Automatic annotation (TrEMBL):
The keyword NAD does not apply. Coiled coil: none annotated. This is DNA-binding transcriptional regulator LsrR (DeoR family). One of its GO terms (molecular function) is DNA binding. It comes from Chelatococcus caeni. Keywords: DNA-binding, Transcription, Transcription regulation.
Length: 331
């Protein structure tokens, strides 16, 4: 394909992404891309005819593929999937709106990946994390009656508020006519001394054993900021946040906090959380979901833990991840 042809195809994919994923009207797409509405209409039709648009958009631009390959090689990943970056469209958006769009895009890509895995294996056990990006995958996932699939939570319950708890496993199990298992324990206990008693309970041991046996885990991560889920909803206190920062924590994964080099920090908070252990994650396959402008530093730490095998990331965050690296690491 000529350079002009590739450029036209990239423009077609961008138009389809803005229209189908961002939910923009054709006139808005035309303004954003500075082309006529007639051309937008024609491109959307061509995208459907070419099979690029199905339930979601099945295409990545050449620039996106190149960056995905580079990130996979840089961090030793089996696969890296990027949603198309639209810096010229999202640059003027506030962070909340941009992050919502990023989660939606990663959610669609994650749902496509999940469907691919379900199609390729007759029987699966899948560990499921929590968070808004994981929820975006579940929201985008369509019914897939498979039956021989089990979904299991990898962390304890979040709060007494049902609306905040990790019921993604139930929704996925229902969509697949499969089985769903949650971890019958709180994510955070009051005192470190309480942890052993909870972990000795047989239902908790059974759930964690099932999580360790998972064929792969679908997870996201948090940063160490007041806006992070665990702090925003009061599971951890401002004093806990201060303790974590003093210990050098920059990211959270399955309820455990890690420093900038991907090392588990020594602090009281890590002695009070319940979830699958980092060493167990390293023995299995982890598909990490990453979306949001502020997550670059946390993601860099997560990628250094040795836990991640596959990464699904939004294009803008990927660019920020590279920009946050020292120059010597960008080669």
């Amino acid at each position: 394909m000529s350079e002009a042809g590739r450029g036209d195809q990239d423009l077609m994919v961008r138009a389809a992404w803005l229209y189908y994923v961002h939910g923009k009207g054709q006139e808005e797409v035309a303004r954003d891309l500075k082309i006529s509405r007639f051309k937008v209409t024609r491109m959307l039709a061509q995208a459907r005819e070419a099979g690029i648009v199905k339930i979601s958009i099945q295409h990545e631009t050449s620039e996106t593929l190149a960056l995905a390959d580079w990130l996979a090689a840089r961090y030793g990943l089996a696969e890296c999937i990027l949603t198309p970056p639209f810096d010229e469209q999202t640059g003027s958006l506030d962070d909340e709106t941009a992050d919502r769009l990023a989660r939606r895009g990663v959610g669609l890509a994650g749902a496509n990946y999940l469907t691919r895995r379900l199609l390729g294996t007759p029987r699966l056990t899948i560990g499921v994390g929590c968070g808004r990006t994981v929820t975006a995958v579940v929201d985008a996932f369509t019914a897939f009656p498979k039956q021989n699939v089990r979904f299991v939570s990898v962390i304890g319950s979040l709060t007494r508020d049902v609306s905040l708890n990790n019921f993604e496993v139930v929704r996925l199990a229902e969509a697949c006519s499969g089985e769903g298992y949650f971890l019958p324990a709180p994510l955070v206990v009051d005192e470190a001394g309480d942890l052993g008693a909870v972990l000795r309970q047989r239902p908790v041991q059974a759930s964690l054993a099932l999580a360790r046996e998972a064929d792969f885990h679908l997870m996201s991560f948090g940063d160490c900021s007041p806006d992070a889920f665990l702090f925003r909803h009061g599971l951890l206190s401002p004093a806990d946040l201060a303790e974590l920062r003093a210990a050098g924590a920059v990211c959270e994964l399955a309820g455990k906090f890690f420093d900038r080099e991907g090392r588990l920090v020594e602090c009281g908070v890590n002695a009070r959380t319940i979830g699958i252990a980092p060493e167990d994650l390293r023995r299995t396959e982890v598909v990490m979901l990453a979306a949001g402008r502020s997550k670059a530093d946390a993601l860099q730490a997560v990628l250094k833990t040795g836990v991640v095998n596959r990464l699904i990331i939004d294009g803008e965050l990927a660019g920020r991840l590279v920009a946050a690296m020292p120059l010597r690491e960008r080669r």
